[in-house]
Write a structure and sequence with these properties.
five-stranded antiparallel sheet; five-stranded parallel sheet; Methionyl-trna Synthetase, domain 2; 20 helices; 677 residues; Isoleucyl-tRNA Synthetase, Domain 1; 25 strands; globular; alpha+beta; 42% helix; Rossmann fold
Length: 677
């Protein structure tokens, strides 16, 4: 750490509209906790800061759907998350929340300072407004037809059917989800952080000054900066959040992306009155532990905010991880495709460290990785039980058997003893190098190599045989094994804190500092150790099958939900329906639309003419499959340009149970141009 006196560790604030799952743990909280514990063991001054992110539109939508207040929603999930972290052993120094008064005050003061110093741009623009609800509409409160694929339930920020990022004004036939009415455009004033003004500084600070950052972090930052930065709104029209603290800003709050990272500062204030030494002293090193979806906010936007304010330190490193998948599929909270921490703690009592071990051993440090229950079982049974647990149990059982639990004095060391003990010193240097560079998966493997070393030494020395002929030699062997066991309590402490507390109890020893790692005289002759218990227990197939079945049931429920008919739309008049001219036509040409995954360009003989239609069916059909296919086509739909192609109509498709699109066509061939009545 050289030039620094202390380290400030922040971990991404989990969003308080649901519990924490294993993806959050593997990406952020387990590595942050390992590093905080490691530094504390080294005797360094550390602040490990966490808290719940409790503002933003998804909270208000969840509250509306559940018929409760936004505060009710965040209270529920903040308590679940905080309790889960505590039980799991994430060693925060403080776990705060952004709905707290200290946060509202801190975020308001931060904004006001930048506002007073003229650091914002003030702009008036037109946004959608719901006249019945009397409020401006956030993007997620607007739905309409996607201009890219025709999905009628696209949101104002994204179409979840085709994945296209949208602006609310891109939607066809937009409607307010609050009232169902068509919104109107209305002027509104907002404040923007001019990120473009900080682009030269960011380029120098990151691209030249922090080439040591992880390649995934550095690469994403470079891509953003090279693409050019634009002013970003720091306020929005909403009634849930930190009110904008200036005159004329009624009904406006700080944008959640702006107020959330300030939550690190307010949480530190909540923890200590001496908070400025953590945020404003250049001898403090700040590290952000985050997932890859937060890289831009923590490496570009938040540093620009801190730079604009002018009195804060900047992050020294941002060791972001990639994503963890579950059984080969992306973790999804909306589909309940996750392993939830609070459920794991109930279903696997006393196995907090098993999950920590598996998530670290399989951490998505450089690329997305996959969690499977079979791998969870294998790592527990084949590594924790068969290597670490086996060595400790055998060493302590033999000590009880031969010496009534008293550590024997070592005699003259043979070369094999010296070599074995020397490897502990070597492993210490290796594990430190990995931890210092945030390679926690590698560090854990090195720690387990120390347990492997002990296992191999014990098996090779065979004290149960030697004791029959050379009792003095056995004393040296068992002393060596016990020194390895004592070292294991140190090297594994950042990774398996509950288990190492248990092991220290077996060894009847106090918590040791990191500097003690590598010593070969930790347990002195005459020291009494206690009767051992198993550190880990084998996980049976039936336990794993229950978890796999649980996921299969979730998948089946999702499939059933997909089959369930969508709710009926609003009634339309007969005259409205009669305006639609639907004909039977035949596809006579088809080709993929360049640079898209979902679109086919079709030429259709409608019986009236031959016309071009762009359709989002390319994921389900190859061009050659659809030529000759009779379809039903809405021929009097207003033409619209898609990807530079004028589309003159829309073909009718039905969504199958799995979401696949099927043609709506006559059972028997009919003449092109036949009307659908």
């Amino acid at each position: 750490m050289s030039n620094y006196k202390r380290t400030l560790i922040t971990s991404a604030l989990p969003y308080a509209n649901g519990p924490v799952h294993i993806g959050h743990l593997a990406g952020v909280y387990v590595p942050a906790d390992i590093y905080a514990r490691y530094l504390r063991m080294k005797g360094e001054e550390v602040a490990f800061i966490g808290g719940s992110d409790e503002h933003g539109v998804p909270i208000t939508i969840k509250a509306k759907n559940e018929g409760v207040t936004p505060q009710d929603v965040v209270d529920k999930y903040h308590n679940i998350i905080k309790d889960s972290f505590s039980r799991f052993g994430i060693s925060f120094d403080v776990y705060s929340r952004t709905s707290a008064k200290v946060h509202h005050d801190t975020a308001s003061e931060f904004f006001k300072k930048l506002y007073d110093e003229g650091k914002f741009i003030e702009k008036t623009s037109e946004q959608y407004y719901d006249e019945e609800a009397k409020q401006f509409l956030a993007d997620r409160y607007i739905v309409g037809t996607c201009p890219k694929c025709g999905n009628e339930k696209a949101y104002g920020d994204q179409c979840e059917a085709c994945g296209t990022s949208l602006n609310a004004t891109d939607l066809i036939n937009p409607k307010s989800t609050l009232s169902g009415n068509i919104p109107v455009m209305k002027e509104t004033k907002h404040w923007y952080l001019p990120l473009d003004q900080y682009e030269p500084w960011l380029r120098e600070w990151i691209l030249e000054g922090h080439k040591e950052w992880k390649s995934n972090v550095y690469g994403q930052c470079k891509s953003w900066i090279d693409g050019g930065l634009n002013p970003r709104a720091v306020t929005r029209d909403l009634d849930w959040g930190v009110p904008v603290p200036v005159d004329g800003a009624d009904g406006k709050v700080l944008y959640v992306w702006f107020d959330a990272p300030i939550g690190y500062i307010s949480a530190t204030k909540e923890w200590t009155a001496d908070w400025t030494k953590w945020w404003k002293d250049p001898e403090t090193r700040m590290l952000h532990f985050i997932g890859k979806d937060n890289i831009v906010f923590h490496c570009i936007i938040f540093p620009a905010m801190l730079k604009a304010e002018g009195t804060y330190i900047l992050p020294e490193n941002v060791p972001a991880n990639e994503f963890l998948n579950l059984e080969g599929d992306k973790i999804s909270t909306s589909r309940n495709w996750a392993v939830w921490l609070h459920e794991y703690l109930e279903e696997f009592p006393g196995k907090e460290d098993v999950l920590k071990y598996v998530l670290t051993a399989n951490a998505p440090e450089t690329k997305d990785n996959d969690f499977t229950w079979k791998d969870f079982q294998a790592r527990n049974n084949n590594e924790l039980v068969a290597i670490l647990g086996n060595f400790i149990n055998r060493a302590l059982v033999l000590t009880q058997k031969y010496y009534n639990g008293v550590v024997p004095a070592a005699g003259e060391l043979q070369d094999v003893d010296k070599d074995t003990l020397a490897q502990i010193v070597s492993l210490k240097a290796d594990v430190e190098k990995s931890l210092d560079t945030f390679r926690f998966r590698e560090a854990l493997k090195i720690a387990m190599d120390m347990a492997r070393l002990g296992n191999k030494y014990l098996a090779d020395m065979e004290p149960w045989k030697v004791v029959k002929t050379d009792e003095e030699r056995v004393k040296t062997i068992m002393n060596t094994c016990l020194q390895i066991a004592a070292n294991l309590t140190i090297v594994f402490a950042p990774f398996l804190p509950f288990t190492m507390n248990k092991l220290r109890g077996f060894l009847n020893m106090d918590h040791l500092e990191w500097s003690e790692l590598g010593r070969t005289d930790i347990l002195l002759a005459g020291h009494k150790v206690k009767e051992p218990e198993l550190l880990f227990e084998k996980i049976e197939d039936s336990v794993i099958e229950t978890q796999i079945q649980k996921l299969q049931d979730t998948k089946k429920a999702n499939e059933m939900a997909a089959v369930t008919a969508a709710p009926q739309k609003e009634n339309c008049s007969y005259d409205d329906f009669s305006k639609m001219d639907i004909r039977v036509g035949t596809i006579i040409e088809a080709e993929k639309v360049a640079k898209t995954k979902k679109l086919l360009k079709l030429k259709i003989d409608t019986g009236i003419d031959q016309r071009t239609v762009v359709s989002g069916i390319a994921e389900y059909y190859e061009p050659e499959q659809v030529i000759g296919q009779q379809v039903c086509i809405l021929v009097n739909l207003e033409p619209r340009e898609l990807k530079g192609i004028l589309s003159q109509g829309m073909i009718l498709m039905a969504a199958d149970a799995d979401g696949a699109l099927k043609f709506v066509s006559p059972v028997n061939a009919v003449k092109n141009g036949s009307e659908v009545k």
